[in-house]
Amino acid sequence: MTTPHACGTIGQLSRNDRFWRNTTALDQEVSRAWQSPWSEMDPVRNPFVWTDDGEEEAELVALIAAMVPGPRSEVGWEAGYRFTDAATRLLMDRYGRWVFGWSWAIGEGGGGGVVASWCCVSHSVGEPETTAAKVVASLLEWRDWLEELAEKFALLAPPADADPEDRSWHLERAATRLVTLVVDRTGAECGWYGLCRTVLKWFLASTGMEPEDAERAVDAAIGGRFKSWTRPSLVLVDTVGEDLAVGLTGRRPYRDY
Questions:
Q1: pLDDT mean across residues, the chain
Q2: How far apart are CA 224 and CA 226, in angstroms?
Q3: Is residue 256 predicted with pLDDT exceeding 90?
Q4: What are 102-116's pLDDT values in tens digits?
Q5: What pLDDT digit, counting tens, does each position of 185-194 carry?
Q6: Cβ(202)–Cβ(217) below 8 Å
Q7: pLDDT in tens, 123-180
Q8: Using CA atoms, how far apart are residues 61 and 233, in angstroms rounded to an integer?
Q9: What angle do CA 175, 179, 184 make, to 5 degrees?
C-alpha cells in the first residue's frame, strides 16, 4: 500500500529547488503551461487530428524515443524531469498548449491527476520505445479527459436567460457533479484537489467568466477544505457547491425535491 504524503496543487508541484535553479527558458515555458486557461484547453477551439493509419503515432513515438536519456538504472531524477519537460515542449509545439497535462498521473507520481498510462520518472522512463509509447498513450488519455470535460461543461452550463435563482441551482449542480467526477477519477489520491480546483475554474471560464474571477470564486468556495488522500464527504461536496453558487449569484439554489 502506498504511504500517503503531503502533495502540492497544480501550482505547487513538488520538485527539488536545485532543479528549478537549473531550469532553462524552455523549462519555464513548460511550467507556465500549467496555468493555461480553458480557452487553450477547449477541444472545440483546439482541434486535434489523430489518424487511424498509425503514421502519426509511429512518427511521434520515434521523435520521443530519440529524446529518452538512457536506461532506467542510469537516469537521474533531474535528467528524467528534463526529458518530460522536453517531451512536453515537443508536444506543445506540435499540437498546442492543451497537451501539458499528459503526465498528470494518478496518485503520488503525478500529484493527483487522472492519467493512468504514466506514473513518474522513476517508474515510467525506461527503454526508449516503451517510454515513448507511454507518453503517446498518456497524451491520448489526457485528450479524452479534456473532451469529456468539454461535453460535461456544455451540459451543466446555466442557460443564458436563467434568473439568479435558476443560475444558482445550475452552478451548484455543476460544481457537485464535477467535484464528484474528479474524486472518482483520481481516487482522491495525493493532491487531487489541485485538479478539482482547476476543473471548476475551467468550467466557470467556459461559461464566460474571466479566469481571474473564476479562480477567486473557486478558491473562496473550497476554502482549503479538500485534503490530500481524503475523499470529501457528500455533505462537504454539497456545501462547496452551494458556497460557489451563492458566492457568484447572491442567491441560494432552490431545491427541486
A1: 88
A2: 6
A3: no
A4: 999 999 989 999 999
A5: 999 999 999 9
A6: no
A7: 899 999 999 999 999 999 999 999 999 999 999 999 999 999 999 999 999 999 999 9
A8: 42
A9: 150
**What cell does 170 get?**
445550475
DSSP for the chain, written as a single string: -PPP-----GGG----HHHHHT--HHHHHHHHHTT--GGGT-TTTS-----TTSHHHHHHHHHHHTT--S-GGG--HHHHHHHHHHHHHHHHHHH-GGGGGGG-BSSTTTTS-SBSS---HHHH--SHHHHHHHHHHHHHHHHHHHHHHHHHHHHHSPPTT--HHHHHHHHHHHHHHHHHHHHHHHTT-TTHHHHHHHHHHHHHHHTT--HHHHHHHHHHHHTT---TT-PPPHHHHHHHHHHHHHHHHSSPPPP--
Other beta carbons less than 10 A from residue 129's beta carbon: 13
Residue in the block written with cell 529547488: 17
Measured CA to CA, the distance from residue 239 to residue 49 in angstroms comes to: 40
Cα–Cα dist 85/66, whole Å: 14
Banded pLDDT at 23 (limits 50, 70, 90): very low
